[in-house]
UniProtKB/TrEMBL annotation, chain A:
It comes from Sphaeramia orbicularis (orbiculate cardinalfish). InterPro entries: Ump1 (IPR008012). Coiled coil: none annotated. Pfam families: UMP1. The gene is pomp. This is Proteasome maturation protein.
TrEMBL record, chain B:
One of its GO terms (cellular component) is nucleus. It comes from Sphaeramia orbicularis (orbiculate cardinalfish). SUPFAM superfamilies: N-terminal nucleophile aminohydrolases (Ntn hydrolases). InterPro entries: Ntn_hydrolases_N (IPR029055), Pept_T1A_subB (IPR000243), Proteasome_bsu_C (IPR024689), Proteasome_bsu_CS (IPR016050), Proteasome_sua/b (IPR001353), Proteasome_suB-type (IPR023333). Belongs to the peptidase T1B family. GO terms for biological process: proteolysis involved in protein catabolic process. It is found in: Cytoplasm; Nucleus. Residues 237-268 form the Proteasome beta subunit C-terminal domain. The active site is at residue 41. Keywords: Cytoplasm, Hydrolase, Nucleus, Protease, Proteasome, Threonine protease. Component of the proteasome complex. Signal peptide: none annotated. The lineage of its organism: Eukaryota, Metazoa, Chordata, Craniata, Vertebrata. GO terms for molecular function: threonine-type endopeptidase activity. This is Proteasome subunit beta.
């Protein structure tokens, strides 16, 4: 049923989407952790390992794109333009880079403060056990690094 | 400590990090990987004169072993909507809990009881989004302001609206009984007896279903969740706790030694009451 080596189909989905894996391995000291993630292979790092991985990563952007284009067709260009401006403004209300922000304004605009999905239960970033190095993350954000 | 990378917080939701490792391990290990707990079920539902009757067996299997003899397969969604779940046990539990939370938020916001079509649409969107990877076959039954409804939602997101229904591994046996004896506008007792007979047929003819039968009757006036409606003839008489009543063991002698305590030091700390 699911052919993990069907690269042609997956590659076509990759075209306009956000890249999946970083190019640096995730073990300690930047080395590949063979016990946990198996042997290194270029294919594993570039292509998604599960057919749902890309679909889930792009779900919110795709949904927004579809909604905005429908809105543009119905009400004209001003409607999605105004909404996107509000989203950009709300997205800029953040804490320092190593702290988790509540994104309250963004949630209210999106309507996701009135629904619960798997992204609220599984892998909640507010409860992640690892934190980035504060000084380095702020320097990276300010462009000093 | 070596130079640590700039950390991006992982995205919320499902994490696919272990897929590559699992694929690599499957090639190395010779035996089968452990299978998730499935319910291997018979669930059935039908619409009668005043509402909806849902029924389910209570056995949960993990390959060939019975993992739970008394599992609850009829889940609460809203005061007027209940849902039977077949398939992977964890998936049905979590999906119905999410659905129930979403409907509760909605009814708190709007002050209305949720409708069946809302529940079905939320489920359908959620299951279609994950393309069948969430293995949940659900029968939703409920009574709302528009009438009595019975829907089924498949793991890939397909929806069917029907007057009577059976799902799970024992569905063919249960459907045989339902097809034979179902009539529109049955009375309450006849409807309960028909659902019981359907689940009983599933229990007898399917290895994955068994033990007791649960029945849930939903009407405009309220919900009657009868658990268990019928107990299996092969009841287990082993107890879970072995607690003996005091006096079971005879007392031969008794010696009481009072403990002498004397006050060595006393300090008083004032409590700050403002």
């Amino acid at each position: 049923m699911l052919n993990l080596f069907d690269t042609r189909g997956l590659r076509s989905q990759l075209k306009d989407s956000i890249p999946v894996a970083g190019l640096c391995p995730t073990g300690s000291y930047g080395l590949q952790d063979s016990m946990r993630s198996g042997f290194t292979s270029v294919k594993n790092e570039l292509l998604p390992s599960h057919p749902l991985e890309l679909s889930e990563k792009n779900y919110q952007p795709n949904k927004d794109k579809m909604n905005f284009s429908t809105l543009r067709n119905i009400q004209g260009l001003h409607a999605p333009l105004k909404l996107q401006m509000e989203y950009r403004a709300a997205r800029q209300i953040q804490r320092l880079p190593f702290l988790q922000s509540s994104n309250l304004a963004l949630d209210t605009l999106r309507g996701s403060d009135e629904s619960i999905g798997f992204e609220d239960i599984l892998n909640d970033p507010a409860q992640s056990e690892m934190m980035g190095e504060p000084h380095m993350m702020v320097e990276y954000k300010l462009g000093l690094l | 400590m070596a130079l640590s990378n700039i950390l991006e917080t992982p995205a919320a939701g499902f994490n696919f990090d272990n897929v590559v490792r699992n694929a690599a391990l499957e090639g190395l290990l010779e035996e089968q990987p452990p299978k998730p707990l499935k319910t291997g079920t018979t669930i059935a539902g039908l619409i009668f004169k005043d509402g909806v009757v849902l029924g389910a067996d209570t056995r949960a299997t993990s390959s060939e072993v019975v993992a739970d003899k008394m599992c609850a397969k009829i889940h609460y969604i809203a005061p007027n909507i209940y849902c039977c779940g077949a398939g992977t046990a964890a998936d049905t539990e979590k999906t119905t809990e999410l659905l129930s939370s979403n409907l509760t938020i909605f009814s708190l916001n709007s002050g209305r009881n949720p409708r069946m079509v809302m529940a079905v649409n939320i489920l359908q969107d959620m299951l279609y989004r994950y393309h069948g990877n969430i293995g949940a076959n659900l029968i939703l039954g409920g009574v709302d302001c528009t009438g009595n409804h019975l829907y089924t939602v498949g793991p890939w997101g397909s929806v069917n609206k029907v007057p009577y229904l059976a799902m799970g591994s024992g569905d063919l046996a249960a459907l045989g009984i339902l097809e034979d004896r179902f009539k529109h506008d049955l009375e309450l007792e006849e409807a309960k007896e028909l659902v019981r007979a359907a689940i009983h047929a599933g229990i007898m003819c399917d290895l994955g279903s068994g033990n007791n039968i649960d029945i849930c009757v939903i009407t405009r006036k309220g919900v009657d969740y009868i658990r268990p409606y019928q107990e299996s003839a092969y009841k287990d008489t082993r107890k879970i706790k072995y607690k003996y009543r005091p006096g079971t063991t005879p007392v031969l002698t008794q010696k009481v030694v009072p403990l002498k305590l004397e006050v060595v030091q006393e300090t008083v700390q004032q409590m700050d009451t403002a």
